[in-house]
Design goal:
Helix content: 25-40%
Shape: elongated
Strand order of the largest sheet: 4-3-2-1-8-9
Radius of gyration: 26 Å
Number of helices: 6
Largest sheet: 6 strands, mixed
Structural class: alpha/beta
Number of strands: 12
Number of domains: 2
Strand content: 15-25%
Distance between the termini: 75 Å
């Protein structure tokens, strides 16, 4: 019997680091891809559909969303097993406990590894708190597969990809295993189509604000949420979008990732007592984060240059 395993549907997740439009697109995709999962599991005649954690985010999920999930999972032709994970952990107040679920759906509520009644070679462990250590793996004879959300293969537990995922992380697929041979490598089932894109731009050779703006304009995708990851070393005097230059602001739906960015500093001449020199000396010793120091310096240099030109 085939078992389809998915994780990280993330219904009603906030996606706070991706902005309003990107987050909204992913929340819409979560609802759509759950239906695709059931459709694909039915098409492949899987006997069990295992939801291995993070079906929803219990901090934000609405009862209506959980009702939707129950209805969709109820259309699966076999047994549905839900094993709560890090964001949908189960206790007495969880929507797993307070909402009604379809007749074909069972919910694991134990943090200890237990064999599933729907497939005896499938051993699962639920998150019953938002943190804590993983449970001990019990000794057992015969082949089996262990499933607990948020674990890696090297933990001896099957690592299941996030179905709906941050574009900086891998994901977008389900797994298929055979209950009779659970130790064989899982087969990957791609469920592509997640909205949004990730684009990397190296800023090292972009020596002024206009050059950076041109490089960004070249990769924009109208109508599609975009995560723009800048990397390399940003030259002194280059202003990032959203840092004081309205002409170079980003369109809605574009989010900047600056975590991989390094910041160059302007060379200092100890003998320079000009307004520019004094400003650079002051900024060099400013007690602030590198990003704020760099962009404040860039704004100041632009203002000094404009003043020198009489503009």
């Amino acid at each position: 019997m085939d078992i389809m395993i998915v994780s990280g549907v993330h219904l009603d997740h906030a996606w706070t680091g991706l902005g309003t439009q990107f987050g909204s697109a992913l929340r819409g995709w979560s609802r759509h891809v759950l239906a695709l999962v059931v459709e694909e599991a039915n098409r492949r005649n899987a006997g069990v559909l295992l939801v291995a954690g993070d079906l929803f985010d219990r901090s934000f999920a609405l009862p209506a969303t959980v009702d939707y999930a129950s209805q969709i999972l109820g259309t699966f032709s076999g047994d549905v097993v839900i094993v709560p994970g890090r964001t949908d952990w189960i206790d007495g107040t969880s929507l797993y406990s307070t909402q009604e679920w379809a007749a074909n759906t069972s919910i694991c509520s134990s943090s200890d590894y237990q064999s599933c009644s729907a497939a005896s070679t499938l051993w699962v462990s639920a998150w019953t708190a938002p943190g804590g250590s993983a449970p001990r793996v019990p000794v057992a004879t015969g082949p089996r597969v262990l499933v607990r959300a948020g674990m890696a293969d090297d933990d001896g537990v099957l690592a299941v990809p996030e179905l709906v995922h941050d574009p900086r992380e891998p994901g977008g697929s389900a797994l298929l295993i055979n209950s009779a041979t659970p130790n064989e490598p899982a087969r990957q089932v791609d469920l592509t189509g997640q909205p949004g894109s990730l684009v990397d731009v190296d800023v090292t050779d972009l020596l002024d604000t206009d050059a950076l703006a041109d490089a960004i304009d070249a990769v924009l995708m109208p109508g599609n949420p975009l995560l723009l990851r800048l990397h390399g070393t940003l030259a002194p005097g280059v202003l990032l979008p959203g840092f004081g230059d309205p002409e170079h602001s980003l369109p809605p739906g574009v989010v900047l990732d600056l975590d991989s960015l390094h910041f160059a500093t302007a060379s200092l001449d100890p003998a320079d007592r000009s307004a520019r020199g004094e400003f650079l000396h002051a900024m060099a010793y400013a007690n602030t984060a590198d990003l704020q120091r760099h962009q404040t310096t860039a704004l100041g240099l632009a203002a000094l240059a404009a003043s020198a030109q009489g503009t």
